[in-house]
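User: Quick sanity check before I run a bigger batch. Here is a single chain. Can you write out its predicted 3D structure?
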Amino acid sequence: VQLQASGGGLVQAGGSLGLSCAASGLTLSSVSMGWFRQSPGKEREFVAAIGRSGGSTYNEDSVKGRFTISRDNAKSTVFLQMNSLKPEDTAVYYCAARRPLALQYGWWGQGTLVTVSS
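Assistant: Done. Predicted structure follows.
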């Protein structure tokens, strides 16, 4: 299983950025997907998650109303649209996959860096 995150970059505060996570080696519709992030000196934290069909989504409080997670199972890709970015959103963003009934995410991508300048 491989998860390839992409789309990171440098953006000014208030701007937008879209991340993608391309999955291979698994049937995307069989797993829930999540986005996490890790800032320098901080623990990795949950950002957003989406159910297998895309009907259920969950967002960490600090990104509600600004970030949107979505998925296209036919294209084996998960997305994270980030709007109204803030400097505190600066982090390496990781996508991850979780099998049904699993307590933890078992597959992780390599991360993509998002830098928000003030």
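Residues 48 and 59 are 4 Å apart (CA to CA).

User: Great, the batch can go ahead then.
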